[in-house]
Write a structure and sequence with these properties.
The structure is a homodimer. With about 290 residues, chain A is an all-alpha fold. The first copy, chain A, is built from 15 helices and two strands. In chain A, α3 packs antiparallel against α4, α9 packs across α10 and α14 packs antiparallel against α15.
């Protein structure tokens, strides 16, 4: 896992414009927002899903980077004062706290463009039609019917009590869409999957994404800011409905384990090629930040 | 021109998600920001450039929409309080004035995703490798080395006096990059151009883009808010360096005409196929909003 995280870090280093290029401050801020932090969960999922379809890891790199760049942009925009207004991210001042709001806005905008630029690189896959498929999957996952839409639902839910199905609807968009895209893009870099196995991967991604979010909600309550690298206790402070507010800590923890089991069950027939996806499922549920 | 504007309007209508789809408010705000306004200058340029390469107009539609969606997103983000802080756009309250800042942020983000999704639609071109080329051109034009980078340079220049070459550097990024992309994408939907003619189109796009900006600067001084559909006199109020502040109105108007001549000169040998690009050049320089 460490090896792949380092591979991602080096590749992000290369794909992000150098601060020596104009506009230097924007490029510096983009690098600040992306490099030197983060678990790289989505790239790891992309590589792991690529193993299921025997994708060469270097073929998965553009997809892994693109998903991570979309994720990084979303964090920068989510932290802005008009959204979650958070000054801390990955253990350091958030992008707007360090570079100002206007620059942070442009950092997010530019990272989104860079994600699509990276995934459109020539010959990142031998089959350009499939490359276009991946671009479309990523764009849909990022947009108003995916991640950005999830943020909008999140905004509208502040101060409300949501039922578990309503929470699920929100998170399937907000975090689930991009996690699903990471899995589909990674798998899409290898041999074509039949419809049955493709459905299984999709099912895995859904449960893994939800498990990720339930654990996020738990960590917000149980973790401390130093370990999390971001402000702990924020959900309650901002009156956001979470799995913990809906279910309590004990049942939320049980739900995380149930979702882990469902995710693993979806992988059963995929054989040893899915070993790393299984590892990551455990990592998602056991993580402390 | 009217026909093509209507074609663009109808196609935008279709590509934007309906407000009946969740999240409804976000979709409503996206439609508000994009539909029913705007000159559709960039789509018109894309169609006109497509005529040079004998592209079928319906083949140009996805490229024309994608460029317009990027433009629309940039207007929504530029109007935000942390940027230009403008409450009026296209003759009505700007997106954040109508829907709130957080929603406007997500509108811009979602429109950017939708632009790439639209351009990645299957079989929008018969040659998927060229479609990938167009996606990359658009991503680069939108990102930190293009439009968003131009915004960053613009931010840094507030309160400064810029020389004409410095202004040119800023605008080649801020407005020029996307206008160039409109021309290259439109032309890219037809028969391949040889390097010489491709260079000429590129040269045309550069001068047309600069002419567009010089006229924008003039209109900000000479126009009224009702005709412009946005707040007049804003550049001076915000201490932004412009061609008018650098050159005065008379010489700025002369520069616009010189740039028009340069743009037209670049088209000379392209024959009758470039007729509509010539018309648009005049429209760019003669427009009143």
């Amino acid at each position: 896992m460490r090896t792949q995280q380092e591979r991602v870090e080096r590749a992000l280093e290369q794909v992000l414009p150098q601060p020596a290029l104009a506009p230097g401050k924007l490029h510096e801020a983009m690098r600040y927002a992306v490099l030197g932090g983060g678990k790289r969960m989505r790239p790891l999922l992309a590589f792991a899903a690529g193993e299921v379809t025997h994708a060469q890891p270097e073929r998965v790199v553009p997809a892994a980077l693109a998903v991570e760049l979309i994720h990084a942009y979303s964090l920068v925009h989510d932290d802005l004062p008009c959204m979650d207004d958070d000054d801390m991210r990955r253990g350091k001042p958030s992008c707007h706290a360090a570079f100002g709001e206007a620059t942070a806005l442009l950092v997010g905008d530019s990272l989104q463009s860079l994600a699509f630029q990276t995934l459109a690189e020539p010959a990142s896959l031998t089959d350009s039609n499939r490359q276009l498929d991946l671009l479309r999957i990523l764009a849909m996952a990022a947009g108003s019917r995916g991640m950005a839409g999830g943020q909008a639902i999140d905004l509208d839910s502040v101060g409300k009590e949501l039922s578990v199905p309503e929470l699920e609807f929100m998170h399937i968009h907000k975090t689930g869409a991009l996690i699903r895209a990471a899995v589909l893009l990674g798998a899409g870099c290898g041999e074509p999957l039949n419809a049955e196995n493709s459905g299984k991967l999709d099912r895995f991604a859904k449960f893994a994404g939800l498990a990720f979010q339930v654990v996020d909600d738990l960590l917000d309550v149980q973790g401390d800011s130093a370990t999390l690298g971001k402000t702990a206790g924020k959900d309650a402070m901002q009156h956001k409905p979470t799995y913990v507010s809906a279910l309590g800590e004990v049942r939320a923890r049980e739900l995380a384990h149930d979702l882990r089991s469902e995710a693993l069950a979806a992988l059963v027939s995929l054989g040893p090629e899915a070993a790393r996806l299984r590892e990551l499922t455990d990592f998602i549920v056991m993580r402390s930040n």
